[in-house]
Write a structure and sequence with these properties.
Elements: E1 3-6, H1 10-19, E2 24-26, H2 30-40, E3 43-44, H3 48-54, E4 57-60, H4 67-74, E5 80-83, H5 90-96, E6 101-107, E7 116-121, H6 128-135, E8 138-143, H7 145-155, H8 158-175, H9 180-200, H10 205-212, H11 218-228, H12 231-243
Parallel strand pairs: 1-2, 1-4, 2-3, 4-5, 5-6, 7-8
Antiparallel strand pairs: 6-7
Helix pairs in contact: 7-12, 8-9
Family: Belongs to the pyrroline-5-carboxylate reductase family.
Protein name: Pyrroline-5-carboxylate reductase
Subcellular location: Cytoplasm
Length: 246
């Protein structure tokens, strides 16, 4: 399957690195498309229309406000379109591409290392070959579209949250005298290991906490400090901020 990406920014780059296949690509900044094509052995194409003519699947990675302008170029030529545009519902995509098979996906940047999550909107198209393509990037979760934006608040934004949490822990270790590189290695490796352990425990977060927490021990004191610091409320506020009025 020949993939064509319209937009060659961070998320497009993460997906292409995860797939590891040559792609066609365009971008409002031609040099950015050229750099991405050079990295994966693909080709930077002159126009969106040419890309749509040559690609089996056009992946929309441009800015959401460009939907109508890009569709005017692409819709007459595209065989199938997959959107990763945040906040753009299927109804808008189908209105922009009325004669084209349309998919809606939302990936997260860890797909670069095939460790991320990808949301698929159930009401969109569901060809097994296209679903398998996105499943190569990580865990594919199909949800009703009404739940997609909520799910986005748990995975699409979250790499930045975990990076902030890691940064805070690393800084705390540095403040207590650990070298920065060793503090970072300890924190990041423990985050990765904890994620693997949670999966092995079938996502039983309480079980994982209990395995570490002795009554009155250091972990219990640390958890108490985090609770008093409002960690639960902070994450609840974060998803409310992401969703805004939606």
């Amino acid at each position: 399957m020949q993939i064509g990406l319209i937009g060659s920014g961070n998320m497009a780059r993460a997906m292409v690195r995860g797939w590891g296949d040559p792609v066609l690509c365009t971008d409002a900044l031609p040099e950015r498309a050229a750099a991405l094509a050079a990295e994966v052995g693909g080709e930077a194409v002159a126009t969106n229309a040419e890309l749509a003519e040559r690609a089996d699947l056009v992946v929309l990675c441009h800015k959401p406000p460009q939907l109508a302008a890009v569709a005017a170029e692409v819709a007459p030529h595209a065989k199938a379109v997959a959107s990763i545009l945040g906040g753009v519902p299927l109804s808008d995509l189908q209105a922009a591409y009325p004669e084209t098979t349309v998919y809606r996906f939302l990936p997260s940047t860890p797909v670069e290392v095939r460790q991320g999550a990808v949301i698929h909107a159930l009401e969109g198209a569901g060809d097994p070959e296209v679903l398998a393509l996105f499943a190569r990037l990580g865990t594919l979760v199909s949800l009703p579209e009404a739940q997609v934006d909520v799910a986005m608040g748990l995975m699409s934004n979250t790499p930045a949250y975990w990076a902030l949490v890691a940064e805070a822990q690393i800084d705390a270790g540095i403040r207590r005298g650990l070298p920065a590189d060793q503090a970072a290695e300890l924190v990041v490796q423990t985050m990765a290991g904890t994620a693997a352990l949670l999966r092995r425990r079938e996502f039983d977060t309480l079980a994982v906490r209990r395995e570490v927490t002795s009554p009155g021990g250091s972990t219990a004191r640390g958890l108490d400090a985090l609770e008093r610091g409002g960690v639960r409320a902070a994450f609840s506020d974060a998803i409310d901020a992401v969703l805004g009025g939606r």
